[in-house]
């Protein structure tokens, strides 16, 4: 008795790997990922701001900052201008590669990195000379908590920018949307870092 053979068509072939995940045509996965990450970071900063306002409004009954704490508002203001400027250079970098201007992209990324590094250096120098530490009263703890949390995010941003700079000089990016995500995604994160610092500076140093 002859054995029957059954032909297996392409539709019935078995694969050892799972099918690709469904992807929306409106937003790519990398951009969606960084946006969701930023949402989680906003909640993290929100918890710190809630602690700050509790200490300032509920637990404090005197002047703010309490004596003898003094904040270098002028230095922090100059540092804010430096960081805000870096958002413009980041935007310049992204727009340059969209127009296939590789030199503009490289200059924009390098300038953004240097401005961010300058901001971080000035903040560390401020910590060295400010005259109090995180162990000095609740104000010292929340001051270093908020500004230090932001400084950590600047450090992460600088790492991302450093990678983007290396890739830019190696010619990895192009004008097509899918070819410059390595510039756009760190740019979204960097703009978030800048906006968050404006809020921290206004809350802690100005109000």
Q: Overall pLDDT, averaged?
A: 89
Helix-strand pattern: HHHHH
Radius of gyration: 24 Å
What's the N-to-C terminus distance?
93 Å
The largest sheet is: none
Helix content: 55-70%
User: What's the overall geometry?
Assistant: elongated
Q: Uncertain spans, ≥5 residues at pLDDT below 50?
A: 1-8
Percent of sequence in beta strands? under 5%
Count of beta strands: 0
Give me some keywords for this one.
mainly alpha; 207 residues; disordered N terminus; 5 helices; single chain
Structural description of this entry:
- This protein has helices at residues 29-58, 73-98, 102-129, 137-169, 181-206.
- It is elongated, with a radius of gyration of 24 Å.
- The protein contains five helices and no strands.
- By secondary structure, it is mainly α.
- The longest helix is centred in the last third of the chain and has 33 residues, at 137-169.
- The model is unreliable at 1-8 (pLDDT under 50).
